[in-house]
Amino acid sequence: MKDTVLQVRNLSYSYPDSPPVLKNISFSLQKGESLAIVGPNGAGKSTLLLHLNGILKGSGDVLVSGKKIERNNLKQIRRMVGIVFQDPNDQLFMPTLYEDISFGLLYLGIGPEEIRRRVDIILKKFNLEEYRDRSPSQLSLGERKKASLATVLVLEPEILVLDEPTGSLDPGFKKLFIDILRNISTAKIIATHDIDLVWALCSRVLFIDKGEIMAEGPVSKILTDRSLLNEYNLDLPRALISIS
Fold this sequence. Notes:
Helix 3 runs parallel beside helix 5 (141-153). By secondary structure, this protein is an alpha/beta fold. It is 34% helix and 25% strand. Strand 9 and strand 10 form a beta hairpin. It has a domain at 4-87 and 157-241: Rossmann fold (3-Layer(aba) Sandwich), CATH 3.40.50.300. It is globular and about 50 Å long. The chain has helices spanning 45-50, 74-80, 97-107, 112-125, 141-153, 171-182, 195-201, 219-222, 226-231, 238-241, and strands spanning 4-14, 20-30, 34-38, 59-64, 67-68, 81-84, 159-163, 187-191, 204-209, 212-218. It contains ten helices and ten strands.
């Protein structure tokens, strides 16, 4: 379909000397869609995300806008698919925030004037202008999470991939981050344990365990399946508890 921006077909992966972490995973993502990947610790969520821009390569196929991920197109794929890691320290490693946000643009060969323009826009959008010349280590966790997102969005990806975006955030910053993500129209894949985040942002859920898809469907179906939630010790979204 012309609006399909990502296809994963029969993807399997094993780390060296380990049993399979992913087993014949298949799904697709449509333009503008927000897909949640939910499952217990060790289910394979983060490993799956690392296949979406070629950091890991398993058996099976991953296609981005119809292009199969290959060694010779990794630079193009990594511009199209931006991953925001769970720990901001894995994303922020330069001496200043400006250098962190501009790093990916330099990698893509963008000229200095365009880099300045894009970085200035993203700093203003995320209210990070005052931290421009500071070390990211001086920022709070919430600000570092925003900065990590900024380093990816400045590349203008077609697909935004997030690993536990609200993990360890206090309620105020969690609400702010959900609001930020809600206003981003880019297609999103969000791996998370945060059921309230899924309910607020996503239209569809992929539930995986032990590397396999256990359930897939609309949020309204999967997150109201009490037998599934009970099996994995998950609660109903708080938005539904008062009316359940």
